[in-house]
Amino acid sequence: METPGSQSSLHRANLERVVRAVRLAGSLTQAEIARTTGLSAATVSNIVRELREIGTVEVTPTSAGGRRARSVSLSGNAGIVIGVDFGHTHLRVALGNLAHQVLAEESEPLDVDASAAQGLDRAEEVVARLISATGVDEAKIAGVGLGVPGPIDVESGTLGSTSILPGWSGTRPAQELSGRLGVPVHVDNDANLGALGELVWGAGRGVRDLAYIKVASGVGAGLVIDGRIYRGPGGTAGEIGHITLDEAGPVCRCGNRGCLETFTAARYVLPLLHSSHGADLTLERMVRLARERDPGCRRVVGDVGRHIGSGVANLCNLLNPSRVVLGGDLAEAGELILGPIRESVGRYAIPSAARQLSVLPGALGGRAEVLGALALALSEMGDSTLLEGPVPAARHAFT
Q: What confidence tens digit (pLDDT) does each residue in 247-268 have?
């Protein structure tokens, strides 16, 4: 029997530290594992050898700083995770392995007025379809990450009031999907998952403090502090869309006036162009026309950027992030929107915070949230079962 402080207990803890570091990063050299875990190079080398022998990790030759090195990643056969992202008008599902490789991905339209039951039915169908298409072993599915466009109560897992998916308010989507699929499901809002996706796979790699800003039907921010998503005690951290810009401004859906959202979200911005561009104008088309030098669209995109920059300046003054990543359709506007954001940050943020900040477009586009859902599933699974090799068989309900 292992006792706290015993050699076997310490060895087990070191094994789990190495597995966790590799699981969260996707792949690391042995030198990087040593820096991340604080273990000696010799200890890391011995642990990697042991994990390789039981089939938990794979080691491949690579280079680091011009020198030969060995890259360590979890075995592609060690387990499978699933990402599910519900958006304003879409459902995206992805399958990935523990080596951070995406095995299959599918997106389809979703009726915004669909009930939670209908949406979860669709998700269940797409998951089953991807499993069938890839031929993965259902027994190896370790967990699911689920993204929804609304606030999630941290303690209860209940989805709060949302005008984006009104038929979902008051539901517990993780619990309900877990009951359907027979595996653990972890849920978070879309902005947090966008931040997690960019942190692991995209424009946030290598950064430990960043904000991911998503502007669509609403405005939200995913906050990463010291390498971890910050949700706050009630799960509502990052509601940047409800920073007040003008106390006499338009009435927001939250009941206040002049929130940042009322100057930047699609529902408020697109009507400004209806008389000149038609009532069927979308955010995506507005951005495309702006890039094609349409004067009205360029003006609106620039104004939106300046307003977002005011909100970002507040974040800089409070949290001092080193990077802001802009996601969603507006990121496709490039410097047409990033330039005005930087202009406002330079004007309203503390100079030292503004100098340290870089503002970049997201690297993942519309995939950020579903990849973030995969990363959520990866981050929430335990390490102990991986020390015995592949994820053990379990009952699943995909077919």
A: 999 999 889 999 999 999 999 9
The structure tokens 């507040």 sit at 314
Q: Which tokens in the block code for residue 188?
A: 């978070």
Closest by Cα among 298, 353, 356, 360 to 326: 360
Using the structure block, give the residue that is written with the tokens 């995770």.
81
Cβ proximity of 60 and 43 under 8 Å: no
Token pair 């000149």 is at which residue? Answer: 276
Which residue type occupies 78? A
With tokens 């996706």, the residue in question is: 197
Sheet holding 141-148, edge to edge: 102-109, 90-97, 80-86, 141-148, 185-189
Strands 80-86 and 141-148: parallel
Tokens of 81: 């995770």
Q: Long-range contacts for 223-231 (Cβ within 8 Å, ≥24 apart)?
A: 223/192, 223/195, 223/315, 223/319, 223/321, 224/195, 224/196, 224/199, 224/321, 225/319, 227/199, 229/188, 229/192, 229/195, 229/196, 231/154, 231/188, 231/192
Q: Output DSSP code: residue 259.
A: B
CB atoms within 10 A of CB 31: 15
Rounded to whole angstroms, the Cα distance separating 22 from 75 reads 11
Residue 29's SS3 state is strand
Contact 240, 308 (CB under 8 A): no
Please name which of 16, 1, 12, 8 lies closest in space to residue 386, comparing C-alpha atoms. 16
| Per-position DSSP letters for 209-254, written without gaps between them | SEEEEEESSSEEEEEEETTEEE--TTS-TT-GGG-BS-TTSPBPTT
Nearest to 87 by CA among 14, 189, 156: 189
CA dist., res. 195 & res. 333, Å (int): 19
Amino acid of residue 221 = A
CB 56 within 8 A of CB 15: no
Question: With a threshold of 0.70, does the pTM exceed it?
Answer: yes
Please give the Cα distance from 150 to 169 (Å, whole number): 9
- Give the tens place of pLDDT for each residue, 349-364: 999 999 999 999 999 9
Which has the minimum average pLDDT: 122-136, 174-188, 222-236? 222-236
